Amino acid sequence: MKKIIISIIFVFTLIIGCIVYVASASVDSLNDIEANTEKLIEAERTVVTHSATAENIIEQVYEANGFSEDDRRTDIKLNISTSINRVNSISNVRSSDSINSETNKSYIYDRMLNSIDYFNSLQATYYHIPSTGYSYYSTYCIQQGENPKSKELIYNENGELISSCSFDGKYSANVNGDAENIKVDADIQKQKTKSINSIQNKAIEERIINDRINISAKEIKSENENNIYEKLPVDIESSKKLDFVSLVDSKKRIKYLPEENEDCYFYRNNLPQLPMSNTQYFSQAFAFGFLSDFKKWNIDKIDEVLDRECFVISGEIDGDYSEKIKTQKFEMWVDKEIGALLALEGYDENGDLSILLTTSEFVVDESIDQSVFDDLSNL
């Protein structure tokens, strides 16, 4: 009998122990869940705080530069009917009130001043005769978003590499070649007598596209001891936070400063980091100089350049800017979707060519082989 009682007590004790253990484990598990939940909440608080801080910075800089709620940039929609698209008759287009409306001109102006907002990736090659200085070829590629990178190669009129720039997301490296390579027969006065088609060398452009893919910054740096090399760290996130001009209405980005007795032009940060090719993909200077006075230019038609729909615009400029760039009349082709400048012809008071930009490659939002970009960490 005693043995039976002892056995019953042992079993009862064992059962009670199991219950206590399970209850204890449940409590521990609940504590773990509670602790993990607290960590998640704290992480979310951190993310929200970081985001709010970034937003506060850009807002504070916006206000510090004298801009108010009335100066806010808003989304501008095109007001062009499908029946007007691709019209070839300039006279018919100009007779239409809609295509040259204030809204449509505002749309083009805004796109040119904010073009980097409208593409994720870009691969392009163009030729440019500026109003002053030497003509050059550029081939470049840009990747934006979470993994920003970019690269450009600049060549003189003879197809000799004169500079390069690479951005790997953390560093930007510039390599400027031997200055003697720049000094070729590229005098604009001599080029005025040439036709536009004879100025541009297609063979050079085809070759330099391959160079962009095959030549690295390290190779460029090492092949010539006369190269001038500069590598700098880039905090792209800080640049975005400080890009307060992105919040400003395009028409408000020219502000008269009484104390300086002159206009101040507010430029956005060149986030892709390319010093030369922004002439095409981010043509803020041309937008300010050619299009800020809506009365002096017209949208002639919508045409195609390299399978891209473009606004064809013509107009006149005068005053100090006209004298500076030796140009009075112009015609430009502006990408309808992203606002990049695909072509430009400028003429002086005698009708001679004073400025030119032509494009031979322009690929938007297609995947880019990552081997094209340079890793500058060990350069």
Provide a compact summary of the structure.
The protein has 379 residues and is α+β, with helices and mostly antiparallel strands. It is built from eleven helices and 13 strands. The chain is globular and about 50 Å long.
Ordered list of secondary-structure elements with their pairings:
Elements: H1 2-64, H2 90-95, H3 102-113, E1 121-129, E2 136-143, E3 149-155, E4 161-167, E5 171-176, H4 188-191, H5 196-199, H6 202-214, H7 217-223, E6 228-233, H8 236-241, E7 254-257, E8 262-265, H9 278-281, H10 284-291, E9 297-305, E10 308-316, H11 319-325, E11 329-335, E12 341-347, E13 353-364
Antiparallel strand pairs: 1-2, 1-13, 2-3, 3-4, 4-5, 5-6, 7-8, 9-10, 10-11, 11-12, 12-13
What report would you give on this structure?
With 379 residues, this protein is of the alpha+beta class. The chain has two domains: 1-64; 69-372, outer membrane lipoprotein receptor (LolB), chain A (Clam), CATH 2.50.20.10. It contains eleven helices and 13 strands. The chain has helices spanning 2-64, 90-95, 102-113, 188-191, 196-199, 202-214, 217-223, 236-241, 278-281, 284-291, 319-325; strands at residues 121-129, 136-143, 149-155, 161-167, 171-176, 228-233, 254-257, 262-265, 297-305, 308-316, 329-335, 341-347, 353-364. Strand 9 (297-305) and strand 10 (308-316) form a beta hairpin. It starts with a helix and ends in a 15-residue tail after the last strand. Residues 1-52, 82-95 and 182-186 have low confidence and may be disordered. This is DUF4367 domain-containing protein. It comes from Ruminococcus intestinalis.
